[in-house]
């Protein structure tokens, strides 16, 4: 195909190649809809590659469940022997994916290379992990990696979205979008044909593949769909050639020639004609469709009985010889399409285990789902095993609801079998999974039931894990530190796993965390456990404990420690591709930014969490509370709705455990001037804390009762709250300042003398906390403290138009021609509030229309 309107992209890619092969390395993401010409651009790039640069071409296959590390399997013969060996060992279960990644990294370090991976929208999880691994290390490689994908198939829940988000932060990653061809380009391609160029443009919408297919059709009329265009390309094929083409469409996007020959013995005599039609191509070892759209067009015309026959022939051929582990996915696909339940149950669970071993958890979950569709004939214990595998794969793939549902099914099956030990282990897993789902009460009940059940069978690794689970819950629930310590000691006594360093570190961490939260000590022991886990390369333990440290330091409002903990957790999770934990740190970071007074950044972080479809309920509850508090503190409406949403995500006990949720309910009531409701909420919170030691929440609630004119009951209180309750507002505020929490410091100053109140007012105004500032002025009037400064702030007085900071933000957005709804979305306010601000801006500017305001800004 002639390269039209792609010259600039090709030039950019050639420039990246020149830079990359001399170092540092580069990555180019080429994106566009199906048939837009991504492969054509890559092919033109390959033609200009210098002789000393090695070219490696691979692609992902459009399988229902992708083949783990499929592109790397295709490249193995062209790579260093060490890569092939590591890959073979990983695929047979003797090695690990990390060794494959390291060997490939070493191979790419050895010589300048162009590595192309096409169609990564079909990539399995292990392949996206490989791209993420290489991308981080590209600056040290003499290589250009070109990855192509269909951006019209990438939605918020697509597996590729996470990878693209990670790559967004790397300056050596470039993005190149291929747009549809213009009318002029389509007309140029249609020159010499009898087709109407305008109709051709209308039908094709400028898609180069559709344009080419239509132009190659023998029909003089413009086909309405690509199906007709492809049908025109197949018209001249013989019966055997059409049979081969149909079989290839059923077999998939790409197939090995030996496999095709085993299904169609006389393929050699038909191959030339098949290739001549232009829909397929071959490299001598495999044959594939040039475009997936072409294959699908062929497939739609293949009768159902013929599809079934081909799938059965392929399945039989693949089973005839030794089955390679990297073929398990293909076998499972063909087994299901061949309507062979026995074969599905033979290959799908093995494919699932293989995918999980390579870190492709979404693919593993999909294979378990496939097997479960045919599992009714299996013995109950086999079915339970499939549900357990499905549950764990879903959990690691962040499919939390599916994970919990599958584990519940497994629990019921183990109970029916009378297999108490496995039932107890399933209950422990269920307990562990329920807490991030916001079901803390049920999680604790399941954990206790697991302990009771497993204790009947004596010491075991499963019982040790159940005790550790309860030690963790003791810290979560702010029970006495002795409770967490007791569970941890029991775990170490019954586990009989002296080599399990991860369990030993968790047994150290959870009791220390309980002491840190309840008594103020234990931080050093927690830090030591996290650092030890990282030093010993206990990746999952280290990632989990590092994440918990973010939460625990935030509960204590310690900005310095929280900032260090969040940064460490994010860095470690990025380096080790722990995406589940990495996303959780974003919710923690929104809380951190709220505490330190960076409210605009806190809003951005909270919205990022809430907009992600895989955020667990516990993260959504934190982010919703942050959103509500920023709105309430800034005097914006809808704070109550966000708080109700937070309460909807998790149960009452979980809201108490987090701390931020319940205090948020009290504070928003106070900011709304509803002191009676604030006191009631605070007293309800203290009642819910009976029997637990949560000084950072109980102290806060006691202070809110005092601030609203009530007399708080005795309650454990962390240092800054205890100082305020004792009447020492100055010391309390100073402690908050040391912790890096300016808003909390200003709240503590409300019970101080006149200078202290004036300082509180100044701090609230600097933060943009309008309702709190208004309450402070009212309090000063009641106490007879004069003068109460009123009128515009210094920033407003300095503005030549007399605009406030918020109005100036709106003024600038008016200059961009935005509507009230667009302004509201940009500033995280409601359209109604945006309309009020627009009206104020127009009035202060002395203009009557938005266009006049925009012209005033431009002048």
UniProtKB/TrEMBL annotation:
GO CC, any one term: cytoplasm
Record field: transmembrane: none
Lineage top rank: taxon: Bacteria
Matching PROSITE patterns: HTH_LUXR_2 (PS50043)
A Gene Ontology biological process term: regulation of DNA-templated transcription
Zinc in keyword set: no
Gene3D superfamilies reported in the protein's UniProt record: Winged helix-like DNA-binding domain superfamily/Winged helix DNA-binding domain
Keywords: ATP-binding, Nucleotide-binding
The HTH luxR-type domain, residue ranges: 796-859
SUPFAM superfamilies membership: C-terminal effector domain of the bipartite response regulators (SSF46894), P-loop containing nucleoside triphosphate hydrolases (SSF52540), TPR-like (SSF48452)
Gene Ontology MF, one: adenylate cyclase activity
PANTHER family, alphabetized: GUANYLATE CYCLASE DOMAIN-CONTAINING PROTEIN, TESTICULAR SOLUBLE ADENYLYL CYCLASE
Protein's name in the database: AAA family ATPase
Organism: Streptomyces adustus
């Amino acid at each position: 195909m002639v390269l039209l309107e792609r010259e600039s992209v090709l030039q950019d890619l050639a420039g990246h190649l020149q830079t990359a092969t001399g170092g540092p390395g580069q990555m180019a993401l080429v994106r566009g809809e199906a048939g837009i010409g991504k492969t054509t651009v890559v092919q033109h790039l390959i033609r200009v590659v210098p002789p000393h640069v090695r070219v490696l071409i691979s692609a992902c296959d459009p399988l229902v469940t992708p083949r783990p590390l499929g592109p790397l399997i295709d490249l193995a013969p062209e790579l260093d022997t060490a890569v092939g060996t590591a890959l073979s060992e990983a695929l047979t279960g003797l090695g690990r994916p990390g060794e494959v990644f390291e060997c490939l990294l070493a191979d790419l370090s050895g010589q300048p290379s162009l590595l192309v991976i096409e169609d990564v929208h079909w990539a399995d999880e292990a392949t996206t992990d490989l791209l993420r691994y290489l991308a981080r290390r590209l600056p040290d490689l003499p290589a250009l990696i070109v990855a192509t994908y269909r951006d019209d198939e990438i939605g918020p829940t697509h597996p590729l979205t996470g990878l693209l988000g990670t790559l967004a932060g790397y300056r050596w990653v470039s993005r190149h979008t291929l747009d549809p061809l213009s009318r002029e380009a389509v007309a140029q391609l249609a020159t010499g044909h009898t087709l109407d160029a305008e109709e051709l443009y209308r039908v094709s919408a400028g898609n180069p593949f559709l344009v080419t297919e239509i132009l190659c059709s023998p029909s003089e009329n413009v086909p309405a769909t690509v199906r007709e265009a492809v049908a025109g390309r197949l018209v001249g094929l013989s019966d055997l050639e059409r049979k081969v083409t149909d079989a290839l469409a059923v077999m998939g996007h790409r197939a090995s020639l030996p496999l095709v020959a085993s299904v169609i013995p006389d393929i050699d005599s038909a191959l030339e004609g098949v290739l001549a039609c232009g829909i397929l191509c071959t490299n001598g070892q495999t044959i594939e469709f040039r475009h997936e759209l072409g294959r699908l067009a062929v497939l739609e015309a293949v009768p159902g009985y013929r599809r079934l026959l081909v799938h059965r022939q392929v399945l039989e051929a693949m089973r005839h010889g030794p089955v390679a582990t990297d073929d398990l996915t293909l076998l499972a696909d063909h087994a299901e399409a061949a309507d062979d339940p026995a074969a599905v149950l033979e290959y799908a669970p093995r494919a699932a285990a293989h995918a999980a071993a390579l870190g492709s958890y979404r693919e593993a979950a999909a294979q378990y789902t496939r097997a479960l569709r045919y599992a009714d004939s299996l013995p109950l214990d086999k079915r339970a095993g499939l549900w357990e595998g499905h549950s764990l794969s879903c959990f690691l793939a962040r499919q939390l609801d599916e994970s919990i549902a599958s584990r519940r099914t497994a629990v019921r099956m183990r109970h029916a079998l009378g297999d108490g030990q496995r039932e107890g282990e399933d209950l422990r897993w269920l307990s562990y999974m329920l807490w991030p789902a916001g079901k803390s009460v049920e999680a604790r009940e399941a954990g206790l039931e697991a302990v009771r059940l497993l204790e009947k069978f004596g010491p075991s690794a499963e019982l040790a894990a159940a005790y550790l689970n309860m030690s963790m819950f003791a810290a979560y629930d702010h029970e006495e530190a002795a409770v967490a310590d007791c569970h941890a000691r029991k775990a170490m006594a019954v586990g009989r796993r002296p080599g399990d360093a991860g369990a030993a570190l968790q047994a150290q961490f959870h009791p220390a965390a309980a002491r840190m939260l309840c008594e103020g000590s234990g931080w050093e022991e927690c830090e030591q456990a996290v650092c030890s886990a990282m030093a010993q390369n206990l990746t999952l333990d280290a990632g989990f404990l590092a994440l918990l440290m973010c939460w625990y330091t935030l509960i204590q409002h310690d900005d310095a420690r929280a900032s260090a903990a969040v940064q460490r957790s994010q860095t470690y999770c990025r380096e080790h591709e722990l995406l589940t934990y990495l996303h959780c740190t974003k919710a923690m970071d929104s809380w951190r930014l709220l505490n330190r007074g960076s409210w605009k950044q806190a809003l951005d972080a909270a919205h990022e969490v809430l907009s992600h479809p895989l955020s667990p309920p516990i993260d959504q509850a934190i982010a919703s509370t942050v959103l509500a508090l920023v709105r309430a503190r800034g005097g914006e409406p809808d704070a109550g709705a966000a708080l109700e949403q937070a309460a909807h995500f998790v149960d009452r006990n979980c809201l108490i455990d987090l701390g931020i949720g319940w205090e948020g309910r009290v504070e928003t009531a106070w900011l709304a001037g509803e002191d009676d409701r604030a006191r009631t909420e605070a007293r309800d919170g203290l009642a819910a804390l009976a029997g637990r030691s949560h000084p950072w929440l109980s102290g806060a609630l006691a202070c809110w009762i005092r601030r609203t004119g009530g007399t708080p009951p005795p309650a454990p209180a962390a240092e800054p709250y205890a100082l305020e309750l004792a009447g020492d507002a100055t010391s309390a505020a100073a402690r908050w300042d040391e912790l890096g929490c300016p808003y909390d410091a200003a709240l503590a100053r409300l019970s101080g003398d006149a200078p202290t109140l004036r300082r509180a007012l100044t701090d609230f105004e600097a933060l943009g906390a309008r309702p709190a500032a208004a309450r402070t002025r009212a309090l000063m009037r009641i106490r007879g403290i004069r003068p109460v400064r009123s009128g515009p702030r210094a920033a407003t007085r300095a503005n030549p138009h007399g605009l406030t900071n918020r109005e100036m933000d709106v003024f600038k957005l008016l200059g961009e021609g935005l509507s009230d709804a667009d302004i509201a979305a940009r500033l995280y306010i409601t359209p109604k509030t945006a309309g009020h601000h627009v009206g104020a801006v127009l009035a202060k500017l002395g203009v009557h229309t938005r266009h006049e305001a925009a012209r005033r800004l431009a002048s």
